[in-house]
């Protein structure tokens, strides 16, 4: 059902300000920058800096664990729904990929991520 970790991302209000902090204050190298998305390398673990999904969990603050599904994102959503997992919004499409948001048993934000096709 779940292939592995896609990334860990931290919600930010201002991507430029966050990149400046992680790069210049913490000294972590920026390894990717694409519009409102940036990634820094924290000793082999990539941390994404991005705003929260406009719909979905609507929670404030905190990192989000993002998983790569084994199957298509649609199939994995259906498999998880059959196990009682609730998805508060539909799968959202972006230039950088597709996302389905949900929560774990303790209320922590989780996502499924599928990279863009082609």
Automatic annotation (TrEMBL):
Residue ranges occupied by any VOC domain in the UniProt entry: 4-115
A Pfam family matched in the record: Glyoxalase
PANTHER family: GB|AAF24581.1 (PTHR33993:SF14), GLYOXALASE-RELATED (PTHR33993)
Native organism: Rubrobacter marinus
Full protein name: VOC domain-containing protein
């Amino acid at each position: 059902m779940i292939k592995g970790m896609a990334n860990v991302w931290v919600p930010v209000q201002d991507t430029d300000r966050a990149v400046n902090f992680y790069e210049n204050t913490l000294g972590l190298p920026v390894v990717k920058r694409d519009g409102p998305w940036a990634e820094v390398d924290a000793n082999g673990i990539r941390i994404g800096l991005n705003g929260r999904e406009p719909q979905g969990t609507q929670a404030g603050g905190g990192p989000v664990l993002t998983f790569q599904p084994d199957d298509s994102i649609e199939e994995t959503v259906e498999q998880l729904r059959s196990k009682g997992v609730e998805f508060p919004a539909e799968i959202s499409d972006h230039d950088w990929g597709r996302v389905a948001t949900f929560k774990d048993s303790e209320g922590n934000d989780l996502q499924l991520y599928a990279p863009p096709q082609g």
